[in-house]
Amino acid sequence: MTTTGDADTADATATATAGRRRRIRRSAIAGACTMGGVFAAKISIAAFSAEFAWWAVVPLAVLFGAGGAWAGAREGRVEGVREEALEPGEMVLTAYAVLPLTEEGPFLTDYEFTPFELRVTNRGLQLWERAEQLWSHPWRTLHLTNDDGWVLVHHEELVIAELQVQTPDGSPDELLLAADRLRTRSRHH
Hints:
Elements: H1 4-49, H2 54-84, E1 92-102, E2 105-106, E3 116-121, E4 124-129, E5 132-138, E6 142-147, E7 150-155, E8 158-165, H3 173-188
Antiparallel strand pairs: 1-2, 1-3, 1-8, 3-4, 4-5, 6-7, 7-8
Helix pairs in contact: 1-2
């Protein structure tokens, strides 16, 4: 027998899920429109600068715009999923492209193509592979160290990740300093 409270909870869950899907879809549409427009504009400008005829530029703009829209929709969806994973009041302070160390060695060698992102929030640290959250832990349970350029992420007593982090100066120092400050601050709140 279903009680009124169970039905209300089910309705609230369905509404939240539908709202989440709408926000992710909006993020994908925004990404598609933005990237499609940028790609179409860039190829049009380049083609007109090279003095191509308008009838040659239009199909190129449509083709490149469609490709850009597809790529933008994928990236927009990923970003939408990541944003939906944040708790109320949680905000992303910064995000880094990372290369994780696997049993076989570094996963990749180029930050440009890595599907992995380390997100630093005001409440914790998250590791993502595209739209899949691999883990998320609060600052009070984490400790980060540097081992010859590799950031070691310690969760309680275990090392849960070994990462090369892309930073502007190539050093993980800014991440380590921020992590120490956020960890200390989390103990006082």
